[in-house]
Amino acid sequence: MLPTQKTPPKPDLHDLTVLVHGPHKYGKSTWCAQAEGALFLATEPGLNHLEVYQQPVSTWDELLAAAGEIAEGKHAFRTIIIDTVDNAYRMCAEYICRRYKVEHESDLEYGKGYALVNGEFHRVVNKLALLPYGLFLVSHSQEKEIETRTGKYTKVVPTLPDKARKLVLGLVDVILFCDLEPTTGPDSRPAYRRVLRTKPSTAYEAGDRTGRLPEVLDLDFAAFAAAFTRAAPRAPGASTPAPASSNAASPSAAAASSGDEAQPAANASPTSAESVPNAAAAAPTTAAPSASGPAAPMREPASSAAGPSSATTGAKLTANPRAPDPARQPAAGGTKPRTAPAPAGGSPASSPRATATTPSSAAASRPRATSPGSR
Which residue ranges form the domains of the chain, and what is each CATH number? Predict the structure, then answer.
């Protein structure tokens, strides 16, 4: 029952419900006659000068019969025009009075008559508006004094009663007010042109729910249709692309994301490269001699390009800011860590400086040979 997708805007004129109001003999019926597949439900004899399809309606029962036949759909009409909707409301009031056998709707108690008339009128007009056809309502206009909290002003409104006018104004999509606009004629004399006003104003009743129409249009149906079609939305099949999700980021965002992910690995190498020289300054440059002979000097890597071992050493040195004890550094040949030699008599010194002694000092430091009997 519930919808699964949004309904697109209706792009055609025959899908609209329009109210046209203005002075008498202004050209409202002539304007409506140019609509596509127009059928007039004529509630007054004002179409004698037009060649149109019309169904004369003199009672509310006749209007109900015509509306029922329209709803069946066995016809080629695209736009239904009630001309005028003021007379249609009066027919509805007469129908309620005959049904309840009263002379006026006010004869029913507690305003029941007005409620019955408005309810019946709204029921029929609303059903016609829901049909897949355009619905044009034609009304005359009058000046009405509007009283507000701040004062009073005069406004041009349709000639429907207050309750019925509010029902119709809330039902329709477009409210067009027929007006005269001053202009200059070909001979530079003041003149007037007939226009349609489409936007709300305190001086007249107008409005455009679709938002496609300009504020002022010439009283020409072709201009009205062109303005409406020119601002029509895209085709119903062309859907708006969905916004990108957080996982599908733009190339720049993807590059930034990959850079953020690679940041710890990139930071590890510079950190180790900076810490290794600092540690090398605190560590000795030579290693202790092994049992096989003096060891080669220890060389620290100059940059982070030394490989994983240098990165690991750098990470360890970074974690421990204190310089390691030179006495506990391993020899280059992989021997056990050197310990400080005990000052025993006659044992050779294990200090790295022993590699720099002269031959004479080395001979003097040799132990004397003794005979076996003296041991």
Answer: 13-230 (3.40.50)
Inter-residue contact 105 to 93 (CB < 8 Å): yes
177, β-bridge pairs: 21, 197
- Alpha-carbon distance 230 to 80, whole Å? 23
Which tens digits make up the pLDDT trace of 99-154?
A: 999 999 889 888 899 999 999 999 999 999 999 999 999 999 999 998 888 889 99
Q: What are phi and psi of 153, to 5 degrees?
A: -150, 165
Asked if residue 174 lies in contact with residue 209, where contact means CB atoms within 8 angstroms, the answer is yes
Nearest Cα neighbor of 24 from 79, 83, 90 is 83
Given a contact cutoff of 8 angstroms between Cβ atoms, the answer to whether 31 and 81 are in contact is no
What is the C-alpha separation between 287 and 301, in angstroms, rounded? Answer: 16
Nearest to 302 by CA among 290, 293, 314, 284: 314
pTM assigned to the model: 0.62
